[in-house]
């Protein structure tokens, strides 16, 4: 359940605080209730019809207790915890997406700028041996386990490509983290930046994107579109950094728990990477938590216009606490508040400009009749005549907009930036 | 102001003494006379000399260009009293797939029947209106003067469970209305100019000024921007376009009119003063925005006073004048070329909008997901309240069946929100 993610950076901080408080000042009632739990546990162990696994029982109890709190509190098994950690914080590996085919590891694609990518691994390559051990007979999970290992260690693989003889490669493992920021120039001068999730590399991906966009546009950017649609959230600190990138000053977000110790406020530091250029933030129903923090901060600070449809509405922060020998517990520890002091819990970010994703059914205007089609119409005195048999000659925008699949929301965002420049130049 | 302002002006043909260089021309006319006489005398059947002359002039004039033409005396009369069709005096929109009244002209039958802006017309003379026949609604409503039309109307102020009202209205001659206006959402002004041909020489301009005053009054003088709708405006008097351009321009050239025959160019400059005090203007255009409407569009686009949105315009950058031919009707001749302030002619090419939007109907793509925080069982309540008031976000009026107007409103809204952002000066 990706969209219920909002991991606090506070996770680690809260962890130490929580340990200090662990086991202290439990009122008598609580002991009684814990005793009840112990009795039930003992009964099950002693008398259940089959032998039970203690750890599984405890994990089930933890799962039940946490999920009774709210939809975002849960117990994570060790495996779930690791998978989540790998996703948001990265893992040590080679950087390729793989699958198992005919008993061998087949590369789907190498991830840009990783050891696998730099070594020239190509989609469709088969990995035959890992550190001299045959892959054949291993499960995918076992094979992946062997490819991964501590950062800086080396792994030797032999690769079979097409009909060629297998060849050996030695790669050094690095921290691999999926790219969460993509960018491209729209119309030559609009910086389109898509953030798919907030992980450890999101902010660095964003700064890189802004730098590259400035270069590619030869410093002619007129504005940015920040696409947070279907972004389920992620790390709180990354949301703060991303907001800060576009803000010069002022509050970004404040988080408040039951106890003042758990409260904090994040303020923007001086410097706006986007140099004050207009920003359109796109959101939709799949934009949650960390995405809503960014949209809320830029909206309340009037730094961006928020466009799209109402967002998911998750206004809470979760803390993750690993438990030695078990997985981790994730539970809601704070609500967050946008700079104007509102909570978006169950309300969502309401866009400044509501634009639903849509298709336009073009009403085919009668284009056959225009000056250029009239018999004996006078030529253009400037000397550039459009061809009467081709009405779209000077209107190529028309034809392209009909042929390519159109992202209606994104188009509205880019049109707004184009229009804004025309309007501002008029002044 | 001089004669070049005038598009429809009828100038009496002057029998000036033509110079000697036209001597040759007269020799050619002699040939025409000869042919005329021969036909009258020798043609197999008797012919009507008036018809022959009409045919000859018509063919000669139409050999020139598409906008030059000849009206015989009888056609001229027909044109004069063509207008015996009656109406009820409402202006409607079908922006949201229903026929909704956007303006009621004062003193008309609709005004007397107390029809109001926002009322929806559900049926006309027992023709139920739906999204497929909205375009024909106007034809149902209009009819001979003095006849009755029965409307089924859902009043804006009526309670939801109240049945729609049936209203019978007698059609009358409706005074020509050249523009109408309203407020869209948060103080966005909207004025549609439907023609530049008014009943008097300044009628269109004066009506435009009245619309501005009305919008200022309705918005408490807080107009955020003006959407100027010139779609389907086929033109009219050039001077009206120039007056209106001047009203919103502080300075700069409006248009230049060149008479190649007379080797003369007349340039029209804007005088200081902007009735809109610099608020953004978006002009809506389409394939049927022509002639004087193109002059106004080009003037505001090239002076960077307005953003042009819609589809490429018609492409008529010529000016014609009408000359009366004593008792023989009139000829309409293309006499001048119009150029935008930058010297551009849009003849045949049309004006390309800054933002091209095809007209269309919005079909919302259903969301692929239904879950939100609110749909979860066991979710936490908002620390303040679960239903905070965001009604100010819903004030925005957005048409579903007019994508060009919809886009213009979205842009105006966005300009307002992003007004403090910088632009790249490099």
What's the short story on this structure?
Chain A is α+β, with helices and mostly antiparallel strands. Chain A contains 11 helices and 22 strands.
Q: What are the segments of chain A in which pLDDT stays under 50 over at least 5 consecutive residues? A: 1-23, 387-403
Question: What's the total number of strands of chain A?
Answer: 22
Q: How would you name the oligomeric state of the polypeptide chains in this document?
A: heterodimer
- Residues in helices of chain B, as a percent range: 10-25%
Number of helices of chain A: 11
Mean pLDDT of chain B: 85
Distance between the termini of chain B: 42 Å
Percent helix of chain A, as a range, is 25-40%
Radius of gyration of chain B using CA atoms only: 27 Å
Shape of chain A: globular
Tell me about this structure:
The complex is a heterodimer of chains A (427) and B (426). By secondary structure, chain A is an alpha+beta fold. Helices cover 31% and strands 25% of the residues of chain A. Chain A contains 11 helices and 22 strands. In chain A, strands 4, 5, 6, 7, 8 and 9 form a 6-stranded antiparallel sheet that branches. A 6-stranded mixed sheet of chain A has the order 11-12-13-17-18-21, sandwiched between helices. In chain A, helix 7 links the parallel strand 12 and strand 13. Chain A starts with 5 loop residues before the first strand and ends with a helix. The N terminus of chain A is likely disordered. By secondary structure, chain B is an alpha+beta fold. Among the domains of chain B are: 92 residues, Pdz3 Domain (Roll); 165 residues, Alpha-Beta Complex (2-enoyl-CoA Hydratase, Chain A, domain 1), CATH 3.90.226.10. In chain B, helix 6 packs parallel to helix 7 and helix 7 runs parallel beside helix 8. Classes of the chains: A alpha+beta (427), B alpha+beta (426). The interface between A and B is large, with 94 and 85 residues.
């Amino acid at each position: 359940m990706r969209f219920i993610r909002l991991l606090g950076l506070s996770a680690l901080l809260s962890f130490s605080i929580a340990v200090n408080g662990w086991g202290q000042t439990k009122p008598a009632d609580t002991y009684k209730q814990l005793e009840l739990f112990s009795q039930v546990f003992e009964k099950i162990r002693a008398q259940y019809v089959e032998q039970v696994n203690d750890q599984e029982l405890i994990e089930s109890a933890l799962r039940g207790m946490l999920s009774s709190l709210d939809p975002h509190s849960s117990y994570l098994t060790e495996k779930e915890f690791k998978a989540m950690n790998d996703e948001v914080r990265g893992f040590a590996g080679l950087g390729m997406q793989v699958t198992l085919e005919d008993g061998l590891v087949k590369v789907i694609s190498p991830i840009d700028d990783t050891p696998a990518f730099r070594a020239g691994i190509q989609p469709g390559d088969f990995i035959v041996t890992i550190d001299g051990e045959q892959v054949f007979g291993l499960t995918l999970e076992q094979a992946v386990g062997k490819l991964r290992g501590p950062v800086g260690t080396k792994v030797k693989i032999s690769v079979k490509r097409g009909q060629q003889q297998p060849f050996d490669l030695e790669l050094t493992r690095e921290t691999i983290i999926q790219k969460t920021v993509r960018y491209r120039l729209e119309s030559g001068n609009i910086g389109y930046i898509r953030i798919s999730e907030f992980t450890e590399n999101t902010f660095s991906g964003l700064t890189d994107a802004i730098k590259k966009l400035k270069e590619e546009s030869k410093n002619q950017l007129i504005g940015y579109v920040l696409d947070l649609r279907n972004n389920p959230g992620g790390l709180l600190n990354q949301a703060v950094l991303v907001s800060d990138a576009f803000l010069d000053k002022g509050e970004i977000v404040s988080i408040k728990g039951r106890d003042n110790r758990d409260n904090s406020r994040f303020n923007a530091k001086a410097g706006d990477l986007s140099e004050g250029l207009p920003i359109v933030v796109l959101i939709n129903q799949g934009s949650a938590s960390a995405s809503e923090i960014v949209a809320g901060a830029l909206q309340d600070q009037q730094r961006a216009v928020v466009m799209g449809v109402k967002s998911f509405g998750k206004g809470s922060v979760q803390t993750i606490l690993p438990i030695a020998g078990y997985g981790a517990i994730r539970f809601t520890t704070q609500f967050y508040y946008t700079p104007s002091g509102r909570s978006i819990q169950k309300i969502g970010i309401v866009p400044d400009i509501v634009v639903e994703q849509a298709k336009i059914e073009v009403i085919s205007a009668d284009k056959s009749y225009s000056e250029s089609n009239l018999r004996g119409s006078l030529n253009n005195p400037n000397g550039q005549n459009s061809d009467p048999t081709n009405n779209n000659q000077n209107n190529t925008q028309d034809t392209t907009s009909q042929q390519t699949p159109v992202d209606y929301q994104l188009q509205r965002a880019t049109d707004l930036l184009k229009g804004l420049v025309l309007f501002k130049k008029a002044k | 102001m001089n004669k070049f302002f005038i598009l429809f002006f009828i100038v009496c043909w002057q029998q000036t003494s033509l110079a000697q260089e036209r001597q040759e021309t007269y020799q050619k006319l002699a040939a025409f006379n000869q042919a005329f006489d021969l036909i009258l005398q020798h043609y197999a059947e008797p012919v009507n000399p008036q018809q022959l002359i009409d045919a000859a002039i018509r063919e000669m004039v139409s050999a020139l260009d598409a906008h030059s033409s000849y009206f015989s005396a009888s056609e001229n009369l027909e044109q004069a009293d063509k207008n015996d069709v009656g109406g009820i005096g409402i202006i409607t929109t079908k922006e949201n797939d229903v026929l909704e009244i956007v303006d009621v002209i004062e003193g008309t039958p609709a005004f007397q029947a107390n029809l109001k802006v926002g009322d929806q017309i559900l049926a006309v003379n027992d023709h139920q209106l739906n999204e497929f026949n909205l375009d024909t609604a106007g034809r149902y409503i209009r009819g001979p003067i003095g006849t009755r039309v029965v409307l089924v109307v859902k009043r804006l102020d009526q309670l939801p469970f109240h049945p729609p009202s049936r209203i019978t209205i007698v059609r009358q001659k409706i005074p020509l209305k050249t523009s109408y206006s309203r407020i869209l959402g948060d103080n966005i002004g909207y004025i549609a100019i439907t023609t530049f041909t008014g009943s008097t020489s300044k009628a269109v301009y004066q009506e435009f000024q009245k619309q501005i005053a009305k919008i200022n009054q309705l918005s408490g003088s807080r107009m955020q921007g003006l959407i100027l709708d010139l779609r389907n405006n086929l033109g009219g008097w050039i001077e009206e376009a120039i007056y209106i351009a001047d009203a919103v321009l502080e300075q700069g050239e409006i248009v230049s009119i060149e008479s190649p025959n007379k080797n003369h160019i007349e340039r029209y400059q804007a005088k200081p003063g902007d009735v809109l005090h610099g608020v953004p203007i978006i002009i809506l255009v389409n394939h049927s925005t022509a002639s004087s409407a193109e002059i106004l569009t080009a003037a505001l686009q090239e002076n960077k006073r307005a953003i042009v949105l819609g589809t490429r315009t018609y492409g008529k950058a010529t000016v014609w004048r009408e000359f009366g031919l004593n008792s023989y009707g009139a000829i309409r001749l293309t006499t001048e070329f119009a150029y935008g302030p930058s010297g551009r002619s849009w003849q045949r090419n049309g004006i390309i909008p800054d933002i091209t939007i095809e007209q269309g109907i919005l079909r919302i793509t259903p969301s692929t997901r239904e879950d939100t925080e609110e749909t979860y069982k066991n979710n936490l309540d908002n620390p303040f309240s679960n239903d905070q008031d965001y009604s100010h976000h819903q004030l925005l009026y957005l048409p579903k069946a007019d994508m060009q107007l919809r886009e213009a409103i979205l842009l105006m809204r966005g300009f307002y929100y992003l007004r403090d952002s910088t632009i790249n000066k490099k």
